[in-house]
Write a structure and sequence with these properties.
Length: 280
């Protein structure tokens, strides 16, 4: 008889989905976190992205350039970019927010930032639409964007997949994009006790994209997946070999610790190095 559990995450945070029993951990050898998860921390991000991005920028020797994020909210709340540009004028933020009230907060928070590009639009999924990401960048007319576009963060709760698929104006070095983790995998243990992960290839505008579907899209666009932490982080394939990654299959990067990465047990999964140290 096969016992199956839908993904819900390990850890102390409450959520309406079931949690994977901790005793299952020993049956999934691939559940040791991938290399970049050890650097997770939040200053403004939600699931440790601030620390992962900081380490990626270090390994890719990125020290300046354009950072684009939408929905940007107020520029700080759950931001994947503010930690980078807050005290560093070498970065140029491009912040897009469709909600008018949130955009007003964004303008107030960025008053001190002379080089910020603030845009009050909901991004369209049509490649040539007036509100498409392609059109927004054409209107910005930034002459060095194709060489200096370092990071694109997409979080719009649903149509993230279609927006990225339609964007072909230029290629940011790193893409952070939301997926629906609940729709991404089913874990099961069969009658013999063997454990496995069934990946789900899913996308709908209402519920968003699964991890497998987003990775497939990333491959089509010339990107390699780095890690999954609720959001998925990609790097352009030309730079992938600069990173400290042994394998980036779904079983290697899927985030079992989505709700528990700050717990003591997570840190014990790195016996050879402290989470804040590089073990190259």
């Amino acid at each position: 008889m096969k016992h199956t559990i839908q993904w819900g995450g390990l850890g102390k945070k409450k959520n309406k989905f079931c949690r994977i029993p901790p005793e299952w951990l020993q049956r999934f050898g691939a559940w040791q976190p991938d290399y970049y998860k050890r650097y997770r921390y939040n200053n403004y991000s939600q699931n440790g992205e601030d620390g992962i991005i900081e380490k990626l920028f270090e390994h890719l020797n990125i020290k300046d350039g354009y950072l684009c994020e939408f929905g940007a909210w107020d520029g700080e709340h759950l931001s994947n970019t503010f930690n980078l540009f807050r005290d560093n004028q070498q970065y140029t933020p491009i912040l897009i927010e469709g909600d008018e009230n949130r955009y007003e907060d964004l303008v107030k928070n960025m008053e001190h930032r002379e080089n910020a590009h603030l845009i009050n639009k909901y991004v369209d999924t049509k490649p040539s639409g007036t509100r498409s990401l392609n059109s927004i960048f054409r209107e910005l007319d930034l002459p060095d964007i194709k060489d200096k576009f370092q990071l694109l963060s997409i979080d719009v709760d649903g149509i993230d997949y279609e927006i990225w698929k339609a964007f072909d104006y230029c290629r940011p070095k790193i893409v952070i994009i939301e997926v629906n983790t609940q729709k991404s995998a089913v874990f099961n243990i069969d009658h013999s006790g063997a454990a496995n992960i069934e990946n789900i290839d899913h996308y709908s505008p209402d519920s968003g994209s699964s991890l497998a579907a987003m990775i497939k899209l990333g491959k089509e666009k010339g990107y390699e997946v780095v890690t999954h932490c609720g959001n998925v982080i990609f790097v352009i394939e030309e730079l992938y070999n600069m990173l400290n990654i042994r394998s980036n299959g779904i079983a290697d990067i899927f985030d079992v610790w989505l709700y528990g990465w700050e717990e003591e047990a997570f840190r014990h999964l790195f016996p050879l190095a402290h989470p804040d140290e590089d073990s190259k």
